[in-house]
Amino acid sequence: ANWLGKELTLNIEKVAHGGIFVARHEGRVIFVSHTLPGEKVRARVFEDKGGSFARAETVEVLEASPHRVKHVWKAAADGAVGGAEFGHIKLSRQRELKADVIEEALQRMAGIERRVEVEAVEGDNESNGLGYRTRIQLHVNEFGDAGPYMERSHDVVLVRDLPLALEEIREAGLHSKNWSGVKK
């Protein structure tokens, strides 16, 4: 069955690598974005090549996890901006999910059964989780506007801030300059 464009009601089971989550529907794996384990969501399939899995995007959260919070990045709250896939998850739960991914990878690829702890960075607390990235990638559209790409596209999203980046990067204001006429 090809489910491209179809909306499915899914129970989210676990995290997968790359900031996506796993559900199962009629014997197939569905990788779902913008959700977290324990949630029940309505999701629209955006990729289905007919194999053992498909990819879907959350359209509506039917039963929210207690670990869901307001997205830390306003521009990414509707899932428009790539690179902030865990921004809707309570910080302590983000760390647990990252540890789950590492634990599963160690077991699957090396046969190592080990739980790791993902520690907070210095100065981090439950209300923050921002300002840690030492590297960002911005793109320039045909009008000279710079910003991150929209998820799963090459469309530049105009943003007012880069909340995940270090303060020094944010202060440079690369995202707020017009780059028309600048050559590589």
What can you see in these coordinates?
The protein has 184 residues and is α+β, with helices and mostly antiparallel strands. The protein is built from two helices and eight strands; from the N terminus they run ββββββαββα. The chain has a six-stranded mixed β-sheet with strand order 1-5-6-4-3-2. A two-stranded antiparallel ribbon has the order 7-8. 19% of the residues are buried.
Attribute tags:
alpha+beta; six-stranded mixed sheet; two-stranded antiparallel ribbon; 2 helices
Per DSSP, the total helix count is 2
The geometry reads as globular
> How much helix, percentage-wise, in residues?
10-25%
- The end-to-end distance, rounded to whole angstroms, is 46 Å
Integer average pLDDT: 90
Low-confidence parts lasting 5 or more residues at pLDDT below 50?
A: none
C-alpha Rg (nearest Å): 18 Å
Order of helices and strands: EEEEEEHEEH
How would you write the strand order of the largest sheet?
Answer: 1-5-6-4-3-2
Compute the number of strand runs: 8
The helix/strand class is alpha+beta
The biggest beta sheet, please? 6 strands, mixed
User: How much β-strand is present in the residues?
Assistant: 15-25%
